[in-house]
Amino acid sequence: MNPDEAFSSPDALADALAETGYLAEPGLVTVTWLAHRLQRPVLLEGEPGTGKTALAEAVAELTGRPLIRLQCYEGIDATQALYDWDFPRQILHLRTVEALAAGESRDADALEAELFDERFLLARPVLRALRESPCVLLVDEIDRADDEFEAFLLEVLSTWQVTVPEIGTVTAQRPPFVVLTSNRTRDLHDALKRRCLYHWIDHPSLERELAIVRSRLPDVDVALAEQVVAVVQALRGEAALVKPPGVAETLDWARALVALRASRLDVELAARTLGTAVKYREDTERVRQVLDRMLG
Amino acid sequence: MLLGFARALRTAGLPVTADRERAFLRAAAEVGAGNRAAVYWAGRCTLTAAPADLGPYDQIFTSWFGGESLDAITHREMPRVSTVQAALTDGGTSAEDVTDQTLRAAASEVEVLRRRDVAGLAPGERAALQRLFATLRPCPPTRPARRRTPTPAGELDGRASLRAQLRGLGEPTRLRHRRRRTRPRRVVLLVDVSGSMSAYSDALLRLAHAVVRAAPRTTEAFTLGTRLTHVTRALRQRDPDRALLDAGASVPDWSGGTRLGETLGAFLDRWGRRGLARQAVVVVFSDGWERHGPELLGEQVRRLHRIAHRVIWVNPHRGKAGYRPVQQGMVAALPYVDEFVAGHSLATFEDLLDLVARA
Questions:
Q1: Which of A2, A108, B292, B296 is the most exposed place for a label (fewest CB within 10 A)?
Q2: B295 part of contact set with chain A, CB < 8 Å
Q3: How many structural domains is chain A composed of?
Q4: Is B215 near chain A, with CB under 8 Å?
Q5: Is the peptide bond before B56 cis (omega within 30 degrees of 0)?
Q6: CB < 8 Å from A in window 154-173 of B
Q7: Which strand (E) or helix (H) includes residue A136?
């Protein structure tokens, strides 16, 4: 679909997202639409498995633009995010030139220009996003990076240009659509939050989750999907689990059952496939109780 | 009208700055100011910054746009706390009259006060002790960080060495080194404010205030009792009396019952597991008195021990002569505690701060 059509109104955007298989709440659709219109990044926070990364993928798919992903970790710095020079290749180039042109004198400026050429530049995700604009830039798990990286990212997000001293300034023709995700392991800096549009993604309701499962896995049996979703909703709501299963876990569980060609979920089958949805040993006891009650 | 809504949110405590207001107005213009639901979402994405803000935002939105007109915004008055300066020595002596002996007497009074049990102080002595809290110097513990910094000697830095070679046309030059930096390690303070700890609650919260002020961004403080309350924001204020007033206002269960295991479990589920307690130094101030059976408490302390870097348990009764941990909750928790220390006087608080700094 033409990106301009998709972003003409929030309702059109909701339909376009649904076509890619991403069923979003009206609030999330409004925020995404506003982010596109106001050209601001979206900051998504929420429990793991609620579809934060999936939104960026869905937007990239519906607009037909490339998705560039920057995975943050502790200690990431501008070199990993922006660009780096391929020093070994540059040194080899120097040696080659030296060996071939032994005796002749070469213009120093020309040699230097050759040395800091495009082919020796390793463009990392943020620089690639600026060059390949328009695109979708996903900055995943920004809370794992530290304060210095946030400051650097804030500068790039505000000005949309980067200066490589040896080459020049790279400016994005159209600012990319930026999605930042965070798991709330720490509080982000207020300056970064002010720049972005903030949205908290909750686990979906029963009807919406059922619609998501049926949209992503068209060949799943309706009754089976209803059972799986009902069990997962009960696990989230009532059982005080260490890690409640998210939408991603529901989809994994449904896929596993489809692969096993099951048509109905019973206690034994659930116990065998539990590893797809529940990932902590301490949770298995409480999960067994819920399963016995709902399926037994 | 929209601007008034943003101002009302600011009065309620949400971090609404001028550029957020501008962003909200632009967003509302884009979605159409007549569409109530769209304005709700436009405001939510520009004016809130954390899940804790969403509750107040909803309330203020329904009261602002819900059909009832508000004539005036009621401002919340900050409580004015006047601190009374009490002299340590009796008033009336001028500077020249103070002799060496009086000074020495005053110093030893202070020394004795530092070692006295907080629960047994008279109100005048309590006020004197509160001023002494300003002399505490908490030092945040550190941990090695992932970033590296250049140093004259140490681990070899390949990239910087190569870069230096480039300047010398590829000839090997002096090697560059780097080492890991250090960052402050997070400290989490869990203060039991139930009835059995009521004699120590004030002093412990002042201690928590001192620790939070020393490293505001990497220290978190919670109170446990029948509920779990996050009091870090209140304790970040500079004035200790005002900070305690705010913290006291936000804690609903002072001197109530004890559900230590449950509240500790709630902390781990909502905050600890997400990352607040991971690789952090966690200090629990409690006497371990648990009404609902020790197994839950033991289980929660075991979970805490698994994710935290160090678990330090401070029991006010530990420093007393003849104390033995026979109380069941304490016995259940002890195997999973790294350090079990006393916390009843200023001197023991100083030792505790030393321990935390070295953790």
A1: A108
A2: no
A3: 3
A4: no
A5: no
A6: 159, 162-163, 165-166, 169-170
A7: strand A136-140
Pair (A115, A166) in one structural domain: no
Residue B154: give the domain boundaries: 145-183
B38 in contact with A at a CB cutoff of 8 Å? yes
What angle is formed at CA B50 by the lines to CA B47 and CA B51, rounded to 5 degrees? Answer: 115
- Please give the interface size between A and B, counted as residue pairs whose CB atoms are below 8 Å apart: 97
CB contact under 8 A, B275 and A148: no
| B111 touching chain A per CB within 8 A | no
Would you call B170 and A95 a contact, using CB atoms and an 8 Å cutoff? yes
d(CA A33, CA B32): 13
Same domain, yes or no: A143 and A262: no
User: What are the chain B neighbours of A26 within 8 Å (beta carbons)?
Assistant: 37, 41
Q: Do B307 and B220 have their domain in common?
A: yes
Cβ atoms A186, B275 nearer than 8 A = yes
A125 is a domain residue? no
Judge if B342 and B196 occupy the same domain.
Answer: yes
**Contact (Cβ atoms closer than 8 angstroms) between residue B24 and residue B43:** yes
Q: State which amino acid sits at residue B57.
A: Y
A38 with A145, same domain?
Answer: yes
Amino acid B294: pLDDT: 85
Is the pTM higher than 0.80? The answer reads no
What is the C-alpha separation between B210 and B131, in angstroms, rounded?
Answer: 12
pLDDT tens for A100-153 read 876 666 777 788 788 888 888 899 999 999 998 889 999 999 988 888 899 889
> What's the DSSP call for residue B279?
T
Residues from chain A that touch B31, judged by Cβ atoms under 8 A, are 10, 30, 34
- If you ran DSSP here, which 8-state letter would residue B12 be given? T
User: Which ipTM was obtained for this model?
Assistant: 0.73
- A84 to chain B: closest CA residue: B159
Residues contacting residue B309 through CB under 8 Å, at least 6 positions apart: B143, B185, B279, B280, B281, B359
Asked which of A139, A172, A201 is the last residue of a domain, the reply is A201
- What are the backbone angles phi and psi of residue B151, rounded to the nearest 5°? -140, 165
Degrees to nearest 5, angle at CA B43 with A64 and A13: 25
Q: Same domain, yes or no, for A177 and A64?
A: yes
Write out the residue range of the structural domain in which residue A153 sits. Answer: 3-80+130-201
Residue with tokens 């009832």: B68
> Is the pLDDT score of B247 beyond 70?
yes
Q: Is B219 on the interface with A (CB under 8 A)?
A: no
User: Which strand (E) or helix (H) includes residue A197?
Assistant: strand A197-201
Helix H or strand E segment including B101 = helix B100-115
Q: Looking at the complex, does the CB of residue B27 fall below 8 Å from at least one CB of chain A?
A: yes
- Final residue in a domain of this structure, among B50, B65, B80: B65
CB contact under 8 A, B41 and A27: yes
CB contact (8 A) between residue A185 and residue B27? no
B54: left (phi over 0), alpha (psi -120 to 50) or beta: alpha
CA atoms of B70 and B91, how far apart (whole Å): 53
Write the pLDDT tens digit of every residue in B148-194: 888 888 888 888 888 888 777 777 778 888 888 888 899 999 999 88
- For residue A71, what pLDDT is reported? 94
Contact across the interface for B170 and A91, Cβ inside 8 Å? yes
Q: How many domains does chain B have?
A: 3
Question: d(Cα A287, Cα B4) in Å, to the nearest integer?
Answer: 48
